[in-house]
Design a protein that fits this description.
The chain is an alpha/beta fold. 55% of the residues lie in helices and 14% in strands. It has two domains: 97 residues, Rossmann fold; 64 residues. The chain has seven helices and five strands, in the order E-H-E-H-E-H-E-E-H-H-H-H. The longest helix has 37 residues. The relative contact order is 0.10.
Length: 185
């Protein structure tokens, strides 16, 4: 999320200004959007506040594939969605992307693409948090007696946190097509 706003930041990268402007208008009220009309502009615009990059694949000069590579080399923690007229081929299996969507897309589809990317990001973060909490619980269960665990308020809080996170994750899985989520993990 961008500093100063609670809206997720979405970078729209497309060399066709009309297309980029259309996406910007479709997303602008719910997200903090920024438009880049070239790969070079995209590299300058993407930063640690960027949540989602909607990236055209075929652009003159620096292609979407090149931009993707530079984003990943910088280690930025953002979701990258190829939003392109290029039909997918087997090469996408090697691409470090979070989704691949073939144009054209309508208003509902573009919003769904962004929401799905944000949900997957949150899902991954919560899965990591759940894993960490479960590892702590497992260590306690191995090292302490059942009586000590039963009498510990901290252990009970830990168990409650785990249950709540599991419930939240289950709700996210119901919102998403879980097969799609597994692609991102």
């Amino acid at each position: 999320m961008t500093a100063g706003t609670d809206k997720p930041k979405v970078l729209i990268v497309d060399d066709e200004e009309r297309v980029a402007t259309t996406y910007d208008l479709r997303l602008g009220t719910e997200y903090d959007t920024e438009v880049a009309l070239s790969g070079e502009q995209a590299i300058q615009a993407v930063d640690e506040d960027t949540d989602v990059v909607l990236l055209d694949r075929r652009m003159p000069g620096m292609t979407g594939d090149d931009v993707l590579e530079k984003i990943r080399k910088r280690g930025l923690d953002c979701r990258v969605v190829m939003l392109t007229a290029v039909d997918p081929d087997f090469d996408i299996a090697e691409m470090d992307i979070d989704d691949y969507v073939v144009k054209p897309v309508d208003k509902d589809e573009i919003q769904t693409v962004v929401e799905r990317a944000l949900t997957v990001s949150e899902y991954n973060e919560q899965m990591q948090q759940l894993s960490s909490l479960k590892l702590k619980r497992n260590v306690l269960e191995v090292e302490l007696s059942n009586n000590e665990l039963h009498d510990s308020e901290q252990y009970q809080q830990l168990s409650t946190q785990i249950e709540e996170l599991e419930s939240e994750l289950e709700q996210m899985e119901n919102t998403l097509d879980i097969d799609q989520v597994e692609l991102f993990l």
